[in-house]
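Hi U.,

Before I forget, here's the chain from the pilot set. I'm dumping it here mostly so it's searchable later in email.
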Amino acid sequence: MLANISRELETHLPEGLLKLLQELGERARGRMEKAFLVGGVVRDALLRRPNFDLDIVVEGQAIPLARQMAKAKGWAIRTHPRFGTAKLSWQDFSLDIVTARSETYAQPGALPTVKTGTIHDDLARRDFTINAMAVRLDAVSFGQILDPHGGRNDLDQKLIRVLHRGSFVDDPTRMLRAIRYEQRLDFRLHSDTEDLLRQNMDGVNTVTGERLWHEMELTLAEPRPEKALQRAQELGILQRLYPAFACDEWVTNKFAQARELKEVTLSLSAVYLALLVYRFDEARIEDCINRFRMPGWAARTMRDLARIKEILPSMQMAEFRRSELFGDLEGCNPEAIAATAVASDSPVIRNRLWLYLADLRFISPLLNGDDLHRLGVKPGREVGRVLRTLLEARLDQKVATREEEETMVRESLCLPPRS
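Structure:
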């Protein structure tokens, strides 16, 4: 008899999501198909960890089922017929419905070739045993768990185990995922899996930079990414990703300090990235960007970091104007500025960087272009020049009110004071 985890699902999932899964299961059954909840949400329900990222696999045709559901609920739907997948969206929530499939790999590191299959085929293509479990969703069998690879036992033993010996050869990015899960869950790699990882880590060179970056980005999004980075360094794969990467005591301490930042809203992932490469020179930063073909936000963070580091000596000067500090940092990525503040050993530099982040970057003139037109400023470049002068005056605390700004404009234009 198959084990049933309906109680765990009832405890783990909000009532609305539970009813949604039950409805999906019944709609699939009405179409003579079977729907299953799969992957991380099943794993985390058994671990009693929050996870509402729902993935549904259908033995049948996922897109028609998704369309039926979208029509009944009035939800948005996006389909990918080539892959037999659909995404349903409503408000701020979404779920993926996919057709059960099997996968084959033409060569190591390549993207897989897929074809329609059974739920057992679909589970067999997964990365680790703990992610290769599925739960029936129809009313007759709701909560029955399919666990053909021993995932539940590995959860109990706190093990990360691949499904077969060629797993890391087929998809070398699984090595990074294995480390991430190991550290996030406080598990350990099964000894055979660790041996396979050590034997195959050179396989990361067969994977595109974009795919490797995706795994790095997920690692940097972890609550404590330094744990996974340290483990990757210990195993030797961090250096395979990029030889200059290092997660030493300096990096781990700075990551911990970054988590204590309270002054401004920041993307911690971007701060972590900037700290990881903080000791790179500009040439190495460009090489790293090219290696991973980084997206715009990541490339900008790193390039702005290099720019900020160049102006740090002048930031040490005893005499400084707030408007000059603003001009030096204007347009720089806030996360790159925050990372520099965390990395710096100079209290003067730290204080000035935080002054910009917490205060100066939010300052603007109280007057706008329409106000200046009414005061007699000619349209065109002159408006921009006057607004910049007002901004610098506000930054340097020479004016504080609309009246003082108007007076400054009138004096610059030699206009009579307002009566």
